[in-house]
Design brief:
29% of the residues lie in helices and 24% in strands. A four-stranded mixed β-sheet has the order 21-22-1-23. Strands 2-14-16-15 form a four-stranded mixed β-sheet, with helices on one face. A four-stranded mixed β-sheet has the order 4-5-3-13, with helices on one face. The radius of gyration is 22 Å and the shape is globular. The chain has 435 residues and is an alpha+beta fold. Bound molecules: uridine-diphosphate-N-acetylglucosamine (UD1) and phosphoenolpyruvate.
Length: 435
């Protein structure tokens, strides 16, 4: 179990550049299986989950060439589908949540897709029904081995159809979409998720020869094509990292520039932070956050009632930023209700923040009320274990703002999604060591 030691209470200063988006990378990498031609991808983050997926592609026989930092060419012209039935795959295939999106492309191109129960954050129930219901609608047969937790779909031919997803699942939409692009006829996916991750995937698939309409909306129409070709693709900056660095700047009252954020793809994120009293200035494509010497004040609603920050499917606020927002609120002026609608085990990490002196009431597994200290009282350093990726980064931010030296164990959770984090934080003045 890896550990960070963090000496808190120091102001940071300078510029930080967000990595390529983790959740986009996981979709885009799976899409390379849809063609036997070369696909070159840039701005791939060097993080544990993405590297695990690249290894899985390699094990499947995909030829991979590193072109430079974050740039790789993939060629899936000799895929070894036998690997999917191997004990090795049953072990490694579930190492991350994103591997579930291997199924759609494999099904479309080779008539079969298998996957062990995928990993990812342990943040509550994370079902896969939407994915498999979609494949069955396209004509696949489905089987599930309950003992081995092994899922499988097979189809000689996929046929386009209309489907209304039971939930706007991000990975589910990507998975079904990647199957539908090679299906016969037209597929309509209603209640599709439409995060920038998915918009990027649609754009990439269209460049490969797919015919997808409705990109960016919750109604996708896909006219199946016989074959897809190669392309080149560049990942957007990671919006969750961007939100994390905003939270970091606020909590440590630091002046920070976040470089090349792709403002037009941030949706409501900037306005949510502004509601929490954070000043964000747009400078070209950078976000400039001035020092919040006088703290930051949470806005109330027009009628004076307490602000609620809740997640919602895109274009609502991504649930992946709520833990970070919660931590930030512990030092705000005012109160806020954080409502994590989606995952039922994601707020339990607040216990640690309470130990550190934060004023939080966990109302139920989905809701926490935070009463900010307005920097009149500093959080106290402590020892903690990172339960999931976003709680991990939130605890790290809390530790960087706290008085004294904190220890965070199980930092592998943070490494799943944040590239070379301690070096990047050290470069802006953080006192952090990996033990
Ligand atoms: C590898 C990957 O891409 N993981 C992301 C993906 O997981 P993943 O694709 O596993 O999660 P799903 O999108 O399937 O989420 C399940 C359900 O929660 C609903 N829902 C979603 C967002 C929301 O704010 N409120 C809500 O209730 C969705 O509509 C869906 O019904 O999407 C999640 C939701 O954005 C993110 O937390 C994960 O980081
Ligand atoms: C929940 C997340 O990731 P995953 O779906 O990969 O577990 C996340 O990135 O916050």
């Amino acid at each position: 179990m890896g550990t960070f030691k963090i000496e808190g209470g120091h102001q940071l200063h300078g510029a930080i550049t967000p990595q390529g988006a983790k959740n986009e990378a996981l979709q885009i990498l799976c899409a390379v299986l849809l063609t036997d031609e070369a696909v070159t991808i840039h701005n791939i983050p060097d993080i544990v989950d993405v590297n695990k997926l690249i290894l899985l592609l390699e094990d499947l026989g995909v030829k991979i060439q590193k072109k430079g930092k974050g740039s790789y060419t993939f060629k899936a012209d000799d895929v070894n589908t036998g690997y999917l039935q191997s004990e090795q795959f049953k072990k490694d295939g579930g190492g991350l949540r994103g591997s579930i999106m291997l199924v759609g492309p494999l099904l479309a191109r080779f008539g079969m897709g298998y996957i062990p129960k995928p990993g990812g954050d342990k943040i509550g129930r994370r079902r896969l029904d939407t994915h498999f219901e979609g494949f069955v609608k396209l004509g696949a047969t489905f089987r599930y081995n309950r003992e081995e937790h092994f899922y499988g779909v097979e189809a000689k031919e996929l046929k386009g159809t209309y489907m209304l997803l039971d939930e706007a699942s991000v990975t589910g939409t990507a998975n079904i979409l990647m199957a539908a692009v090679l299906a016969k006829g037209t597929t309509t996916i209603y209640n599709a998720a439409c995060e920038p991750y998915l918009q990027q995937l649609c754009k990439m698939l269209n460049r490969m020869g797919a015919k997808i309409q409705g990109v960016g909306s919750n109604l996708l129409t896909i006219e199946g094509v016989e074959k897809l070709g190669g392309t080149e693709h560049t990942m957007l900056p990671d919006m969750i990292e961007i939100g994390s660095w905003i939270g970091l700047a606020a909590m440590t009252r630091s002046e920070l520039t976040i470089k090349n954020v792709s403002w037009e793809n941030l949706g409501v994120i900037p306005s949510v932070f502004r509601k929490l009293g954070i000043t964000l200035e747009q400078k070209g494509d950078d976000i400039f956050i001035p020092k919040h010497e006088d703290g930051y004040e949470i806005q109330n609603y027009i009628d004076g009632s307490i602000l609620t920050i809740a997640d919602a499917p895109w274009p609502g606020l991504t649930p992946d930023l709520l833990s970070i927002i919660l931590v930030m609120a512990t030092q705000a002026r005012g109160e806020v209700l954080i409502h994590q609608k989606m995952f039922e085990s994601r707020l339990f990490f607040v216990d640690k923040l309470i130990d550190m002196g934060a004023k939080i009431i966990l109302c139920d597994p989905h809701r926490a009320t935070v009463i900010g200290h307005d920097f009149k009282s500093q959080l106290k350093a402590t020892t903690m274990v990172s339960p999931d990726i976003r709680a991990g980064i939130s605890l790290l931010i809390a530790a960087l703002s706290a008085k004294g030296t904190s220890t965070i164990h199980n930092i592998e959770q943070i490494d799943r999604g944040y590239e070379n984090i301690e070096e990047r934080l050290k470069a802006i003045g953080a006192k952090i060591v990996r033990l």
